[in-house]
Amino acid sequence: MPSPIPVTRLLPKDFYLSLDIGICSSPLSKHSHGSTLQVPAQRLHGATTTRLWSSVIHWKELRSEQPVGAGGFGSVYSAEYLGQTVALKKVKKCTKNKLASRQSFWAELNAAHLRHRNIVRVIAATTCVPEGFGDDSSIGTVLMEFVGRKNLEQIIYGCPEPLEPDRWLRYSVDIVHGLRFLHSHRVAHLDIKPANILVSDEDVCKIADFGCSLKLERGCEVSSISPHLSHIGGTYTHRAPELLRGEGVSLKADIFSFGITLWQMMTREPPYTGERQHVLYAVVAQDLRPSVHSHPVFGSELGGRCEALLSRCWSADDSQRPTAQELLPLMEQLTLSDMSQ
Fold first, then answer.
1. What's the rounded Cα separation, in Å, for the pair 218 and 276?
2. What pLDDT does 47 receive?
3. Any catalytic annotation for residue 191?
4. Which of 89, 167, 299, 317 is 20 to 30 Å from the Cα of 70, by its Cα?
């Protein structure tokens, strides 16, 4: 099945030039019999990596699928694969918008060639599912590292124990580390929210679910939204106002979403109440943002500094938002100031 998104939007130029486009397994590989794609050596945190990820899944090595969760375009399972526990995501056909579901699958591969502590790692991906291993509702499968069954939304709203500042600050730094790395590779996630931040047993946050992501052209700060890219959606409570207006995509859209997520960690409340259409209109036309005046957490010195940072992150003018590169030392300074108190 050919990709509805050009491979040039999925992979860096030094990668896709040597690839053939095929109709089975993946748009990245012409052959499906156990071939692998080798990511070019990259400098990551001072070390060179030549990690492999596979363009096929060895289905006979897959064991014991157990449901973990489901979203708009797919379902996630835990499974055993080649002796290790993995997460298996089946991207389903959307009967109302088949193009969007196909594009969501290919968008999942925008970060497949990247390796970072705060990003969920892709192990393998394929569109070729043998008989007996799937059903007609699935258009593709992605195997990823299994982080666990816990996400940030569950921690914010479902855990009885307090979410102390040292913890949400540490989570925030993890998320910004992941965003800085993604943005350095021109990948806009476009659906940053607590439910898409997985938390490992070691209490490390990892950004997951790239089904709404977009790879920006190098040297291009803002990418116009093509009418053919119908998978770009995201969650309305976290979407930047320029995206709600249908304007261009920039990496700064993720900074807006991070600001809403940080507020949720601090207050442990939903960002908005009321009907969806009212919220959409108010965010765009009236600069509606989550309230900082009715929460005691913002009355402290740390809360006051976070309030100032939030106002920058969710500014209606994306040029006033910090980049992830600029945001990271600001979050780290907040963490140090909290430790010194």
1. 35
2. 34
3. yes
4. 167
CA distance linking residue 260 with residue 310, whole number of Å: 8
Nearest to 148 by CA among 192, 108, 110, 204: 204
Amino acid present at 96:
K
Helix and strand counts by DSSP (H, E) for the chain: 9, 15
Phi, psi of 209 (to 5 degrees): 60, 85
Please check whether residue 283 is in contact with residue 242, taking contact to mean a CB–CB distance below 8 angstroms: no
Q: Of the listed 174, 191, 209, 318, which one is catalytic?
A: 191
What is the identity of the amino acid at 16? Answer: Y
Q: What is the DSSP string of 153-168?
A: HHHHHH--S---HHHH
The structure tokens listed for 323 are 């980049």
Residue type, 188: A
Which pLDDT belongs to residue 305? 95
Is 0.90 topped by the overall pTM?
no
What is the identity of the amino acid at 102? R
DSSP 3-state assignment of 12?
Answer: coil
Residue ranges of domains in the chain, CATH in brackets = 7-145 (3.30.200.20), 152-340 (1.10.510.10)
**Residues of the chain scoring pLDDT < 50:** 1-52, 227-228, 230
Contact 41, 50 (CB under 8 A): yes
Question: Mutual orientation of helices 301-313 and 252-267 as an angle, nearest 10°?
Answer: 150
Q: For residue 132, which amino acid is it? A: G
Q: Which amino acid is at 214?
A: L
